[in-house]
């Protein structure tokens, strides 16, 4: 990872992430980043998980997980969360 990362706050990176999501080829309606956190230089994104009424994953759950993971890789190399 580069040492030239730009500092960013939670609200701004959530807005950027939500703007980027529809550009991904696997995007599905309803995926939206609601929370962000950083640990050991890695930024993680959380949002809708598409669980069923029993709290179990659905077919959309893996797609959502992969989209949040994609954001993690995409933004962790560019930004440092400051709040």
TrEMBL record:
Gene3D superfamilies: Protein of unknown function (DUF2498). This is DUF2498 family protein. It comes from Psychromonas marina. The lineage of its organism: Bacteria, Pseudomonadati, Pseudomonadota, Gammaproteobacteria, Alteromonadales.
């Amino acid at each position: 990872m580069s040492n030239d990362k730009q500092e960013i706050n939670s609200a701004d990176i959530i807005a950027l992430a939500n703007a980027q999501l529809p550009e991904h080829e696997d995007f599905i309606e309803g995926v939206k980043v609601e929370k962000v956190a950083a640990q050991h230089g890695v930024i993680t994104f959380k949002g809708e998980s598409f669980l069923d009424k029993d709290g179990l994953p659905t077919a959309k759950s893996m797609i959502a997980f992969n989209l949040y993971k994609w954001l993690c890789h995409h933004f962790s190399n560019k930004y440092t969360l400051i709040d």
